[in-house]
Amino acid sequence: MKYRLVTIALLFFAGRLLAQQSPSGAVTGTVQDSTGKPLEFVTLVLVQAADSTPTPNKETTDRFVKGAISDNRGTYVFERLQPGTYRVSASLMGYQTVSSPPFTIETGPQPQLLAPLVIREQARQLTNVTVRAQKPFIEQRIDKTILNVENSLVASGGTALEVLEKAPGIVVDLQSERISMKGRENVLVMLDGKPTYLSTADVLELLRNTPSNTVETIELITNPSARYDAAGTAGIINIRLKRNKSAQPLNGNLNVGAGYGRFAKYNAALTLNARPGKWSLFSNYAFDQRNYWSVATIDRRLTTTEQPTLIQQDNYRPIQNSNHTYRLGADYAFSKRTTLGVLLTGLRTDGRAQGGTTSAIYQANVLTSIQRTENDNKRFIGRLAGNVNFRHQFDSTRRGGQGRELLVDVDYSNATFRPAEQFETRYLTPQQIETGPRSLQRLNTSSTALIRAAKADYTHPLDKRTTLETGWKSSYVTLSNDLLVETKLAERGQTVPWQVDSSRTNQFEYREWIHAGYVTGRRTWPGWTLQVGLRAEQTRTEARSLTTNSTVERTYLNLFPSVFLTRTVGDQHEFQYAFSRRIDRPNYQYLNPFIRVFDPYAYQQGNPYLKPQYTDAFQLAYSYKQETTVSFGYNRTHDVIVDINEQNDQTGVTRITFINLSKQTNISINLSAPLRFTRWWSSRSSASVFHNAYRAQVAGTPLNYSRLSANLTSNHTFVFGSGLSAELNATYNSPYVYSQNQMRAFGQLSVGLQKNLWQKRATLRFNWNDLLQTQRFYGKVQFQNMDFRFATYSETRVARLTFIYNFGNRDLKGAGNRRTVSDDEQRRMN
After folding, report:
1. What are phi and psi of 14, to 5 degrees?
2. Which of 60, 324, 453, 827 has its CA 20 to 30 A from that of 195?
3. Contact 765/805 with Cβ under 8 angstroms?
4. Is CATH 2.40.170.20 correct for 240-827?
5. How far is CA 13 from the centre of its chain?
6. Where does the signal sequence lie (predicted)?
């Protein structure tokens, strides 16, 4: 508590040193159509006027200050403005762009009210002012990072996972199936603001099978407010899929592409939108055929046996995946204040991986035997989710503040995973002579995840500077896993019946009930904003093995406070202090005590007695002109959930299980800044330097691993004119540690090229992912009696060509960004 108070005091002191009550003003207004109807989702641009009259047929030299989007009442606000002369322009697809007359901002407690901006349906092309409003791929704010995926050239034709790998501060480790943010493990991955309730391995598989052309944005939030689930000790990655951008009567786009690395890839997507009357209808279907390869190597050294033994394993797998994703939705506006929406999303993946693992066994540096395992892995993934959302505003704008609002969400989701694996192992001499019968095993798994959730959020402005929010959420999750393992020994060509392996056959169920309530308060003063919140979550879990008839139950109640204090100095400097407490509950697969075999020398076994881990996260951030950000973070985690390796020296087999370490600390310094080299070349680069330290006792041996690491990201955009543009994205991750794993550095370089065709009705994109093929994972484990090194990499160097065609009346008013409950939720995220 002492250090928290010191931090707050320093923040206050720094703000007052930079400005002794710096003067600032504000301006507000509305946007209407020709009938006087308020227009929402209008793009507003505030510029500091260079002269009083725009010059015809050329771009103005006004200096950009801020941007905003009008709300459902057509209202916009620009705050914290220095005295001066300004102009506001309003633009919306299908409407003429208009600008206000120049006006002067003076300091004062009340915002200056401008005359309504009236924009009319487009009848001709305006020539006197050019507005460029496309968002960059990486958008940095003081409280979060936004990846505008649909604006990225290097993301076209890829997967959501490939886009995430290019995000600042994000490390996707495919070897240990982890996602980390600024060096912190246990990130909560959400789809459209809703938890997936899947293991990290299943989330990676889901993202690997989600085409990037179905993703609109990816948000990276390190300190969410009390309004959001407390899960995710490292923060939240929210993947927002594309919603409708409908027009009346009909519009849409067609997206087709092909790629090649070692194997061919194909993708296609169709989007259709319409807005008849009070309805807003939207739909999307995407198909993706992805063929690629994967390689894994492991060298295991056994030094405790009579003779030093080396086991060298090499695995190669060609993989085929076909993916179908679809989204169907409708919004109905009963009135300007009441909207009801429904949304249906689905995913189907059919995959097959055929390959083999060769294990060469050396004793005293002499090859003594060989094991060769051929495997055939078929996989089906199905996911169906439905959502009903309701929004009602009880009254209109009150004294310049937002009115009372009620949001209700009801969700139902059913996910199915059905992998079927078959292994055949042959035992050979160094001369490739087969010895003894072959060992065969087949595994048939059926896993389901059933999710039911409902929540309500209520916003109540007490006055124009104070807002109170409260709400509740209840979720009930049922996860089941049914594994049938059969084995047999047979000579080549011999017919032998399969035998059920009862020691590995398993039926496991996990149930989770979470009831949560929260309250947040937000208060603004000139130059200051304070938001405090408290969330209470009661959790009940039940992990049951039907095979052993054993059950582990837990019930606990936790409080999760959060504090956000923001100091604004003029219109250029912003400071923020943030604190939040968060939780990570063990994934159900981590609790399953039965065995999952990876290869003849490695298997995984869960721990039903795992406890949740808790993190206290502190952050101090600074933003300059809402573009350049610097932040310092300190995070302390107790009962850290990690996977560890345990080796049997007699057999050489490694068991991977999960335990709670006593604590982990993470300290990070993060910098993100834009840079414009020329009129046609701009960039945004980010650096995250972090120190991770693990402290625990593992089987009586101290585990004290720590390391200073860094993540660097640089994204460059080139606009050459005549509809031609290019993009370059580079990332570098220095060596880092995770539990017992010591990982080497890796990175990637990707490039993209785009040409607009037919008056921007069509776009042709070419990109080359991982141009230097450096996205490879190398690491080692040297702990207790274990000494092994590993490497994992796959077909990441891929060239793709994508063609996008927009059809229909794309210049009519769009309703596709209609706010649903979850959309409002995202915009309020801290």
Report:
1. -65, -40
2. 324
3. no
4. yes
5. 36
6. 1-19
Runs of H (alpha helix) within 41-199: 160-164
DSSP letter at 164 equals H
Cβ within 8 Å of residue 114, ≥6 positions away:
27, 28, 29, 88, 100, 103
Q: How far apart are CA 689 and CA 318, in angstroms?
A: 36
Q: How far is CA 607 from CA 551, 565, 601, in A?
A: 12, 40, 20
Host H or E run for residue 120:
none
DSSP state string for 397-441:
-BTTB---EEEEEEEEEEEEEEEEEEEEEEEE-TT--B-SPEEEE
CA distance 129 to 761: 21
The answer to whether 483 touches 505, Cβ cutoff 8 Å, is yes
Query: Using an 8 Å Cβ cutoff, are 591 and 606 in contact?
Result: yes
Alpha helices in 156-225 (DSSP H): 160-164, 200-208
How long is the chain? 830
Q: H or E stretch including 11?
A: helix 2-18
Per DSSP bridges, beta strands 25-32 and 117-118 are parallel
| DSSP-assigned beta bridge partners for residue 665 | 636, 693
DSSP secondary structure string for all residues of 780-808: EEEETTEEEEEEEEE---EEEEEEEEEEE
DSSP track, 37-75: -B--S-EEEEEE-SSSSPPTTS---PEEEEEEE--TTSE
pLDDT value of position 62 = 66
Place of tokens 């004062």: 108
Residue 526 contacts residue 466 (beta carbons within 8 Å): no
* Maximum pairwise Cα distance, the chain: 92
Per residue in 26-47, pLDDT (tens digit) is 888 888 877 667 787 788 888 8
Tell me what the pLDDT averaged over the chain comes to.
82
CATH code given to domain 138-239: 2.170.130.10
The two structure tokens encoding residue 462 = 């007490």
pTM for this model (two decimals): 0.75
CATH number 2.60.40.10 is the correct assignment for the domain at 2-118:
yes
In b/e form, how buried is each residue of 687-713, taking b as 16+ CB within 10 angstroms? bbbbebebebebeeeebebebebbbbb
Residue 273 near residue 323 (C-beta atoms within 8 A): no
Torsion angles phi and psi, residue 719, rounded to 5: -115, 110
Q: Which residue has the higher pLDDT, 801 or 177?
A: 801
The answer to whether the beta carbons of residues 561 and 226 sit under 8 Å apart is: yes
Contact of 660 with 613, CB cutoff 8 Å: yes
Closest CA to 291 of 273, 309, 266: 266
Query: Half-sphere exposure of 672 toward its Cβ, with a 13 Å CA cutoff?
Result: 26
Note the pLDDT tens digit of each residue in 112-143: 888 888 888 664 333 333 334 456 777 777 66
Q: Alpha carbon of 447 to those of 114, 416, 418, 589: distances in Å?
A: 59, 6, 6, 11
Determine the residue type at 162. Answer: E
Whether residue 554 has pLDDT greater than 80? yes
Q: Is the dihedral of CA 215, 221, 226, 232 positive or negative?
A: positive
The type of residue at 432 is: Q
Strand 25-32 relative to strand 112-113, pairing: parallel
* Domain ranges across the chain: 2-118, 138-239, 240-827
What are the pLDDT digits (tens) for 421-439?
A: 999 999 999 999 998 899 9
Asked whether residue 72 carries a pLDDT value surpassing 80, the answer given is no
Q: Phi/psi at 826 (nearest 5 deg)? A: -65, -40
Do 464 and 472 meet the contact criterion of CB atoms below 8 Å apart? no
